[in-house]
Design brief:
The complex is a heterodimer of chains A (998) and B (89). Chain A has 998 residues and is an alpha+beta fold. Chain A is built from 24 helices and 50 strands. In chain A, strands 8, 9, 12, 13, 14, 15 and 28 form a 7-stranded mixed β-sheet that branches. Chain A has a 6-stranded mixed β-sheet with strand order 41-42-43-40-34-44. In chain A, a hairpin with a 6-residue loop joins β21 and β22. Chain B has one domain: Folate-binding fold. Chain B has 1 helix and 6 strands. A 4-stranded antiparallel β-sheet of chain B has the order 3-4-5-6, with no helix packed on it. The chains are: A alpha+beta (998), B mainly beta (89).
Chain lengths: 998, 89
């Protein structure tokens, strides 16, 4: 198909490079440098989508970030991305895009019936229409709305693209490369400041790309090109195109999304798709320019109605005519610039100017070119369904209330200009209190909260001369403050055509007997009547009106609709606009890919993976791993066709009968050193520590100040002033912070130091009746007899030339030891244990067997120490000293903690001795009691007891002390199970603890 | 994201710190007989101030020191920071 609407000798596209692309399955051609929007318009395609609510045909309204509705679904490399603005998507060879929000097709859309049912879809229709009958919501309304609404479909596939994050610091961050951005960047750069200049479009220059001005005796665009070229050579300057600063956060942190590969057919190897920049700037200059605002009239959403600045940009940047028979409808001089460009390229526009008299250089130029100008004329309504075919126009009275006789004139597009709205989103996000500027009928930034300043059009300054003057000055001043350099830069001469005042006119009245839809918010389908309804129904605050009508919401964030909405509210309410106020601008200014926000923290990169020094051995020996916090631990070692249950049972049984070895490297380890270490431990743990001799270990429990158990573990006195503390794997970091808190803030007089040594030691737990026999062979030079190394004893040993620490401690409840060596020797230790242990039938065991062993022993772990239990609940009250004070002691006197029926740990066995009990199930007295069935307790951990060969669980049960022998029910609605159980002691194996001392 | 001046390390992003609550809370002395009310005030009761607030942060990914930060809870402005052992006037 030919590009019928492309004109020669104008535009910044590369006509030597023709690109083919597909839209809705049809192939078209465009040029390098096009956007999808400009390429479609060059081919005469105006219909791109259907509107959100009424499914009315929609075309292009803007030419960039301001576009409210040309949103498409993009396909590339078998991937799909929704929510792409056709006006921002650069064309590449093979691009494929489809319309969204229409079904089955953009030309024939079933949802368009909504357009004729619009009486049922007024403001707040979500809250009114779909409320009854209640059951209809899930079955009928929601599926229907889901299918018919929404702007595209998110891919359900894994995103193969790569996204990066970058952290950057600079003196001045400048948002926008229009005249103010370029001038301030240049002045600051000359003073040696570290500058980052960001431009969201592919081309630098902003309004200078399309305006007919002269700076320093060259065209605006040439001047911009020169400045950018010079900035790029300066080592203290970073200039970035395709980079949108979308959020302004606390302490001058701004976030920018850089499109690295979106304009390419595929991402280059080693390149990210997008890069998210976190920029901490000393000063921020916001030069984000302004967005033209529409004038509201009947059917103003018809494809072919667009902003006059967009029409000019399509012509001057892309060489594309948006129509051959254009109508320009304006209340200011900007419309004339567009009309003049049309005229220069052989097209005869008609200008309707709402003003009665308007005189300026540019209007004179238009007149001299012979352009047909009608003053005091307005567009009443656009006519045509899928494309503008004609316009109903009329003269308007001076008070803008009375329309003259309506005439219909032929046209194929309506270019509308209702003056300019400064883009104050970033300033507002920074906390700036904006103020209303009467002359321009818009808000501009006011008092700054952070180090931020707004320049040029974004600050409501529309004169180029003043913009350059103030921007050069701002760049110089702020950079001088930082670098203390003061290099004079002269402000170039500016030639621009003077313009006259705009007309304070934003909405064309409805002619008698007509009921045209007049849209305020094109993206969310909010019309004048919707806002009128909201106000009639009592919504007053602009924030409420916004939420009730959806005005200014979603990805558009009110870019073209905000002020017209405010004008309407203020008019109905008979208030001035600043009294109505505007809604809060929130980041992001434009949609940001979730992938960019996530960056590289996906899958296994979302957190570090920690492996023990013996990890490779585990891998080679068929270990099946489990995530334990950030650690990978062997869960079981698979033999043949074994499953988890069979393998863990075998491993646990072998510990009870022979000997097993378990990798316990992951346990948290903290060195506690100093002359006051004993006193410190005495305050941290609930039990007594002052008299622990050197060479002995002790089990300790530590509380939070609220009396809840924080962690447990053994601590060993290595030497006079040196203790080796162990914590649970999960709490290691918290315990260290906890200790540091007390040492640094509460008891700084204690002479103690703590440091994490978790990574320094590799640990192996050797457990089982044959463990001493094995240990004797591992340490032939040490006396590891029951007398030489009694329970809770500690010694250093020599493991075939490797220094080792030997602790006689037990988690499994068997005779057991824990051997630590420096991490580098971990694998050596492990292999020696396996080699020598062979004759004792040693087997490695994983965390599943470890759990089984501790559960049937009644030893508590993370599932009981869950942040809700006190020592008594865990049957640890024997470790709570009555004599000394410690962290959290005072809380244990609380009434709830001392009540007679306080919850307590118990054992639970199914009556049938067969049915496994799901963890997390509730214990109840009567399985058939009406819901909600009173809960007496919950199952904290379950296993298959290898000692008794039946299921066994631990539970935290109300009045557990007096419940032994009771018959209760375990209920798991999740697993749909009701199991009759008997409550037994939590010490299901070796209740007297004889084995560990044997 | 806040930008916090660690008195030991200099300006560092918030991600290096963890928050530690009200810095004006004083732990009752050990072995002291105190009322339930006093203890509850120490453990649970906190003013949820709007405005200037002295709070604790720990530089966990840096020097691991606990520091005091004077911050406005509504504007996030940080006025001053102190070492753990500094008395704040």
């Amino acid at each position: 198909m030919s590009q019928n609407f492309r004109v020669e000798n104008i535009g910044l596209i590369n006509r030597d490079k023709k690109l083919s692309f597909k839209f809705n399955g049809k192939t078209y051609f465009g040029y390098e440098g096009d956007t999808l929007a400009s390429a479609l318009l060059a081919n005469g395609v105006h219909l791109v989508g259907r509107s959100f609510k009424y499914h009315r045909p929609r075309g292009f309204f803007g030419a960039g970030v301001d576009e409210p509705y040309a949103i498409v679904q993009l396909y590339r490399n078998n991937e799909t991305e929704p929510n792409i603005k056709a006006t921002e998507q650069e064309l590449f060879e093979g691009l494929e895009a489809k319309s969204v929000n229409c079904w089955p097709s953009v030309n024939f859309d079933i949802g368009a019936i909504n357009n004729f049912l619009k009486i049922f879809l007024p403001a707040g229709f979500y809250y009114k229409t779909f409320m009854w009958p209640k059951s209809f919501w899930y079955r009928i309304y929601e599926p229907f709305i889901r299918k018919a609404a929404g702007l595209g479909v998110a891919s359900t596939k894994h995103d193969k693209e790569r996204y990066e994050h970058k952290y950057e610091y600079c003196d001045l961050l400048i948002a926008g490369s229009g005249p103010s951005g370029l001038s301030s960047a240049y002045a600051a750069a000359k003073n040696g400041a570290k500058v980052i200049l960001a431009e969201d479009k592919p081309r630098f220059g902003g309004s200078l790309l399309t305006s007919d001005v002269n700076i320093g005796n060259q065209s605006g665009k040439d001047w911009a090109d020169g400045i950018i070229a010079e900035l790029k050579t300066m080592p203290n300057v970073v200039v970035k195109n395709r980079s949108q600063i979308f959020g302004y956060y606390d302490h001058n942190m701004l976030v920018m999304s850089e499109k690295v590969s979106d304009h390419l057919p595929s991402t280059k190897k080693y390149h990210p798709n997008k890069r998210l920049w976190y920029i901490r700037a000393k000063e921020v200059l916001i030069s984000s320019g302004s967005i033209e605002r529409p004038i509201v009239f009947g059917n103003n959403d018809t494809p072919g109605v667009m902003l006059s600045s967009a029409a000019k940009e399509y012509l001057k940047v892309y060489g594309v005519l948006v129509g051959r028979n254009p109508l320009v409808f304006t209340n200011n001089d900007s419309g004339y610039e567009t009309a003049i460009e049309f005229k220069k390229h052989g097209v005869n526009p008609i200008v309707l100017d709402s003003r009665k008299n308007s005189k300026s250089e540019i209007i004179d130029e238009a007149k001299n070119l012979g352009i047909n100008i009608k003053n005091s004329y307005v567009v009443v309504a656009a006519q045509g369904y899928k494309k503008v075919k004609s316009a109903d126009i009329a003269s308007i009275s001076e008070d803008k209330k009375q329309l003259g006789k309506i005439e219909n004139i032929k046209c194929d597009c309506i270019c509308v200009s209702g003056f300019w709205t400064p883009t104050i989103h970033l300033a507002s996000q920074s906390g700036n209190k904006t103020k209303f500027k009467e002359e321009i009928d818009a808000f501009v930034p006011g008092q700054s909260k952070q180090n931020e300043r707004t320049l040029g059009a974004a600050n409501g300054i529309f004169s180029l001369e003043e913009t350059l003057k103030t921007s050069f000055a701002a760049g110089s001043e702020l950079s001088k403050k930082i670098t203390e350099n003061d290099n004079e830069v002269s402000v170039p001469n500016v030639v621009e055509k003077k313009s006259s005042q705009h007309d304070k006119f934003w909405c064309v009245p409805l002619p008698e007997g007509k009921n045209y839809k007049r849209f305020l918010d094109f993206q969310n389908d909010v019309s004048v009547s919707d806002v009128e309804i909201a106000l009639r129904e009592g919504y007053r605050s602009i924030e409420h009106v916004k939420r009730y009508t959806t005005l200014g919401m979603a990805t558009d964030q009110g870019k073209t609709s905000n002020l017209n909405g405010l004008q309407l509210v203020s008019e109905i309410e008979n208030k001035v606009v600043p009294a109505v106020g505007h809604t809060t601008f929130r980041p992001p200014y434009t949609p940001v890919s979730i992938g960019a926000i996530v960056g590289r923290e996906v899958g296994k990169h979302s957190k570090p993976t920690r492996k023990s020094p013996m990890h490779t051995w585990h891998e080679k020996n068929n270990a099946v791993f489990v995530d334990a916090g950030v650690w990978l631990r062997p869960r079981y070692y698979k033999r043949g066709d074994e499953n988890l249950f069979e393998a863990s049972k075998r491993e646990a049984k072998n510990v009870r009968t022979n000997v097993g070895v378990c990798d316990v490297t992951t346990l948290g380890k903290i060195d506690v050193k100093g002359p006051d270490a004993a006193e410190f431990l005495n305050r941290v743990y609930t039990n007594a520590w002052l008299k622990l001799p050197v060479g002995k270990a002790r089990y300790g429990v530590m509380l939070r100040e609220d009396g809840i158990v924080m962690d447990d573990g053994t601590t060993t006195r290595i030497s006079e002033n040196h203790y080796h503390m162990t914590t649970t794997t999960a709490q290691a970091a918290n315990v260290l912070s906890h200790l540091e808190y007390y040492l640094q803030l509460v008891w700084p007089e204690l002479n103690v130091n703590v440091v994490s040594t978790t990574e320094q030691w590799a640990g192996a737990a050797i457990a089982g009746p044959k463990s001493r026999d094995l240990l004797k062979k591992l340490f032939p030079n040490s006396d590891v007899s029951n007398e030489g190394l009694p329970f809770m004893g500690y010694m250093e040993g020599d493991l075939f030339g490797v220094k080792a620490r030997i602790f006689r401690i037990s988690f499994s409840g068997e005779l057991a030891y824990e051997v630590n060596v420096e991490s580098d020797n971990g694998n050596f230790m492990w292999e020696k244990i396996m080699e020598i242990g062979e004759e004792f039938e040693i087997q490695p065991y994983g965390t599943e067997a470890l759990s089984t062993l501790r559960i049937e022993m009644g030893h508590v772990a993370g599932s009981e120490l869950d942040g809700r239990t006190i020592p008594y609940d865990n049957a640890l009250e024997g470790l709570v000293s009555k004599k000394k004070d410690f962290i959290g002691k005072r809380s244990l006197q609380r009434a709830a903690f001392t009540s007679d029926d306080r919850q307590r740990i118990v054992g639970v066995v199914p009556i049938d001795k067969k049915t496994s009990i799901p963890e997390g199930s509730h214990l109840v007295k009567d399985a058939n009691a009406p819901l909600p069935n009173p809960k007496l307790g919950h199952i904290s951990a379950s296993c298959w007891s290898v000692e008794h060969d039946n299921p066994f669980s631990l539970a935290i049960l109300k009045n557990g002390k007096n419940m032994i022998g009771e018959k209760l029910f375990v209920m798991s609605p999740l697993k749909n199970k009701v199991i009759p159980v008997e409550i037994v002691s939590s010490h299901y194996v070796d209740p007297k603890g004889e084995r560990v001392r044997s | 994201m806040l930008y916090i001046k660690c008195p030991h390390c200099g300006m560092r992003p918030q991600t290096e710190f963890s928050y530690g609550g009200d810095a004006s809370v004083k732990r009752p002395e050990l072995n002291k007989d105190i009322s339930d009310q006093e203890w509850d005030d120490f453990v649970y009761n906190r003013k949820s101030l709007r405005g200037k607030h002295l709070e604790l942060w720990q530089h966990i990914s840096g020097c691991r020191q606990w520091i005091k930060v004077e911050r406005d809870t509504s504007t996030h402005e940080i006025f001053r920071t102190f070492r753990a052992d500094e008395e704040v006037a």
